Amino acid sequence: MQQNARVGGGSQPLLYNHNKIWTKPFILAILIVIILGFVSLFTGVYDIRGQEDGMDMFFITRVPRTAALMLTGAAMSMAGLVMQLITQNRLVEPTTTGTIEWSGLGLLLVYLLFPAPTLVLRMTGAIIFSFIGTMIFFLFLRRVKLRSSLIVPIIGLMLGAVISAISTFIGLVFQVTQNIETWFVGSFAPVQIGRYEYLWLIVVVTFLIFIYANRLTLAGLGEDVATSLGVNYNRIVLFGTGLISLAVGIVAAVIGNLPFLGLIVPNIVSMFRGDDLRGNLPWVCVIGMGTITVCDIISRTIIMPFEVPVSLILGTVGAVIFIIILLKKRKQGGLR
């Protein structure tokens, strides 16, 4: 980290990396994602070039699906990046903090209160409960004295397991499990025009994270350091949690459960770029888009003409990378 920058026009200095974003590797990464997007547009069982309504289906299903892939990949990767920064732990993301499970509980309760909820209602429930669950996770962390690399995600996984059990129990008692069963197996198959547009709110979330990147970076250094540099630690953590909840809630309502994406991408980026949020954010978004698009293409082609839920592919790849990260940290003495 080099050079001084001002925080919100104040007098306190903030250190962050001024590395160029538009480098040759970054441009190459964008070109690869664009190519993957074109492959996604023309991947599927339906022959859009050989049918009379092929072009209609192209714009009704293929274009929305590819756009949803890009937006979702960026959203979940960003959520993981911000969570890892705030908690100062590389093993943290919505899957390992219980945030996803809280989103599912919010969706379930919305279905209980409203028999045929609109997408806005589902998103609202998922966002509110994502926020509540993430704040509860942070409150637990404040009371835990032992803050090793493994303890933090273990706490999150335990909380998530409890919330998942509660959701299952409520669903069985009130016979509404079938209403959210697609959420448990996140898939882009139902995405079509008119059912994904709220994902564009993720662009706003990205913009806000980039604007507040300096403050979030300071929050990642700890409460004492952030306060000494003139940043209201509690306020910025609350703001960051709100952005995470907004992104995760939207994805949970529209797509469903997408495990480990927020873990894989930020760790890959940090391996060759360090921990600068402002500099890493574009990379995280682009690689997140590419990762989810590759997994979705595999899910559509591996057993054609049938389709495997993308969460299955993503979960398998993510679990393997999660284990690799653990082994690498253990070898480097990073696990205590």
From TrEMBL:
<keyword id="KW-1003">Cell membrane</keyword>
<keyword id="KW-0406">Ion transport</keyword>
<dbReference type="Pfam" id="PF01032">
    <property type="entry name" value="FecCD"/>
</dbReference>
<dbReference type="GO" id="GO:0005886">
    <property type="term" value="C:plasma membrane"/>
</dbReference>
<keyword id="KW-0408">Iron</keyword>
<protein>
    <submittedName>
        <fullName>Iron ABC transporter permease</fullName>
    </submittedName>
</protein>
<feature type="transmembrane region" description="Helical">
    <location>
        <begin position="309"/>
        <end position="327"/>
    </location>
</feature>
<feature type="transmembrane region" description="Helical">
    <location>
        <begin position="281"/>
        <end position="303"/>
    </location>
</feature>
<feature type="transmembrane region" description="Helical">
    <location>
        <begin position="98"/>
        <end position="114"/>
    </location>
</feature>
<keyword id="KW-0812">Transmembrane</keyword>
<keyword id="KW-1133">Transmembrane helix</keyword>
<comment type="similarity">
    <text>Belongs to the binding-protein-dependent transport system permease family. FecCD subfamily.</text>
</comment>
<keyword id="KW-0813">Transport</keyword>
<dbReference type="InterPro" id="IPR000522">
    <property type="entry name" value="ABC_transptr_permease_BtuC"/>
</dbReference>
<dbReference type="GO" id="GO:0022857">
    <property type="term" value="F:transmembrane transporter activity"/>
</dbReference>
<dbReference type="GO" id="GO:0033214">
    <property type="term" value="P:siderophore-iron import into cell"/>
</dbReference>
<keyword id="KW-0472">Membrane</keyword>
<dbReference type="InterPro" id="IPR037294">
    <property type="entry name" value="ABC_BtuC-like"/>
</dbReference>
<feature type="transmembrane region" description="Helical">
    <location>
        <begin position="26"/>
        <end position="46"/>
    </location>
</feature>
<keyword id="KW-0410">Iron transport</keyword>
<feature type="transmembrane region" description="Helical">
    <location>
        <begin position="236"/>
        <end position="269"/>
    </location>
</feature>
<feature type="transmembrane region" description="Helical">
    <location>
        <begin position="126"/>
        <end position="144"/>
    </location>
</feature>
<feature type="transmembrane region" description="Helical">
    <location>
        <begin position="150"/>
        <end position="177"/>
    </location>
</feature>
<feature type="transmembrane region" description="Helical">
    <location>
        <begin position="198"/>
        <end position="216"/>
    </location>
</feature>
<feature type="transmembrane region" description="Helical">
    <location>
        <begin position="67"/>
        <end position="86"/>
    </location>
</feature>
